C-alpha cells in the first residue's frame, strides 16, 4: 500500500553542526600582521573585534570569513534545489531517487504566494493573484502530483527500477539534502536569494528559495552576530 500523499507550503531548515564564530574571522585576519601570535587576546576587546570585522566587510577582504563552516539539513521542493546548486560555493549531498523510494510529499503555494508576473524578463514584478487563480493553481498541482505518484508506484510495482520510475515525478516533489558552506559563501547566497530594502544590489529571488534563505540567515545571525551586522551595514554585499 502506498503512502498517503502530503502537500506542504513550508520549507525545513536545520543547522546540524557548525564551526563558525566572529572570533574565527578575527584570528584568521590577524595572522597577516601577528603571525603565530594571532590567537592571543582574540575576543578580549569586543570593540576592536567589531571594528576589524566591519573593516574587512566594508573593504571586501573576504578570505578571513572563509575559516568557518555551517552544515544545514534542508527539505524543500526539487526546483528549489536546482536553484541552490547554481551556487558552486558550497558542498551538497542530496537524497537519491536511485537508491530509495521517494515519498509522496509535494509543494503547493500558500495563499500569500504572489502568482502573477508583470513585465518582461530582467524587469518584472509579482503581484497577488485572485481567488480563482489560486484555486486553479492548487487544483492543477495536486491533480498532477497525484497522477504522477500513482504512475510512479505502478512502475515500481511492475518491477521497474527506481531510477527509471522517478522520471514521471514533478519538481514539486520534496527532497532533502545537506549543505555545507562558509560564512563568505553564505553571505553571497543571501545577497542573491533574499529581497531586502537597503541592499546595495537589489535581488529578485523566487519566493520558495527565499523562504529557505531566510531560515539560514536567522541561524547565521545567531552564530556570528558581529559578522552578520557587518554584512547588513555593507549593503548585504558578500566580502
From TrEMBL:
What are the alphabetically sorted keywords of the record? FAD, Flavoprotein, Methyltransferase, NADP, Nucleotide biosynthesis, Transferase
* Residues the entry annotates as binding FAD: 63, 86-88, 94, 182-184, 188
Q: Which reaction does it catalyse?
A: dUMP + (6R)-5,10-methylene-5,6,7,8-tetrahydrofolate + NADPH + H(+) = dTMP + (6S)-5,6,7,8-tetrahydrofolate + NADP(+)
Q: Does the keyword Methyltransferase apply?
A: yes
Q: Which cofactor does it need?
A: FAD
A Gene Ontology molecular function term for this protein is: thymidylate synthase (FAD) activity
Signal peptide start-end:
none
**Which biological pathway?**
Pyrimidine metabolism; dTTP biosynthesis
**EC supergroup of this enzyme:** transferase
Q: From what superkingdom does this record's organism come?
A: Bacteria
Q: What does the cofactor section's free text say about binding?
A: Binds 4 FAD per tetramer. Each FAD binding site is formed by three monomers.
One Pfam family from the record: Thy1
Gene3D superfamilies (UniProt xref): 3.30.1360.170
Annotated residues for binding of dUMP: 83-86, 94-98, 166, 193
EC number(s) recorded for this UniProt protein: 2.1.1.148
Q: Which residues form the active site?
A: 193 (involved in ionization of n3 of dump, leading to its activation)
**What does the entry give for GO biological process?**
dTMP biosynthetic process; dTTP biosynthetic process; methylation
Q: Which PANTHER family match?
A: FLAVIN-DEPENDENT THYMIDYLATE SYNTHASE
Could you tell me what this protein does? Catalyzes the reductive methylation of 2'-deoxyuridine-5'-monophosphate (dUMP) to 2'-deoxythymidine-5'-monophosphate (dTMP) while utilizing 5,10-methylenetetrahydrofolate (mTHF) as the methyl donor, and NADPH and FADH(2) as the reductant.
Q: How does it assemble?
A: Homotetramer.
Q: Which family does it belong to?
A: Belongs to the thymidylate synthase ThyX family.
What protein name does the entry list?
Answer: Flavin-dependent thymidylate synthase
Biological source species: Candidatus Nanopelagicus abundans
Ranked from the top, the taxonomy reads: Bacteria, Bacillati, Actinomycetota, Actinomycetes, Candidatus Nanopelagicales
Amino acid at each position: 500500500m502506498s503512502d498517503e500523499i502530503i502537500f506542504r507550503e513550508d520549507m525545513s531548515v536545520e543547522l546540524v553542526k557548525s564551526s563558525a564564530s566572529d572570533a574565527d574571522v578575527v584570528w584568521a585576519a590577524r595572522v597577516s600582521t601577528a603571525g603565530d601570535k594571532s590567537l592571543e587576546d582574540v575576543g578580549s576587546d569586543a570593540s576592536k573585534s567589531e571594528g576589524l570585522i566591519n573593516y574587512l566587510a566594508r573593504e571586501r577582504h573576504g578570505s578571513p570569513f572563509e575559516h568557518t563552516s555551517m552544515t544545514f539539513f534542508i527539505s524543500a521542493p526539487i526546483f528549489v534545489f536546482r536553484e541552490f546548486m547554481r551556487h558552486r560555493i558550497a558542498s551538497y549531498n542530496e537524497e537519491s531517487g536511485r537508491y530509495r523510494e521517494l515519498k509522496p510529499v509535494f509543494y503547493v503555494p500558500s495563499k500569500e504566494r504572489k502568482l502573477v508576473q508583470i513585465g518582461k524578463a530582467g524587469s518584472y514584478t509579482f503581484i497577488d493573484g485572485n481567488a480563482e487563480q489560486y484555486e486553479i493553481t492548487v487544483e492543477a498541482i495536486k491533480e498532477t502530483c497525484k497522477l504522477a505518484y500513482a504512475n510512479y508506484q505502478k512502475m515500481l510495482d511492475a518491477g521497474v527500477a527506481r531510477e527509471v520510475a522517478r522520471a514521471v515525478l514533478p519538481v514539486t516533489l520534496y527532497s532533502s539534502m545537506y549543505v555545507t558552506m562558509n560564512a563568505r559563501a553564505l553571505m553571497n547566497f543571501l545577497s542573491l536569494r533574499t529581497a531586502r530594502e537597503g541592499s546595495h544590489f537589489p535581488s529578485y529571488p523566487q519566493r520558495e528559495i527565499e523562504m529557505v534563505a531566510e531560515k539560514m540567515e536567522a541561524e547565521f545571525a545567531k552564530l556570528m552576530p558581529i559578522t552578520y551586522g557587518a554584512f547588513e551595514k555593507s549593503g548585504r554585499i558578500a566580502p
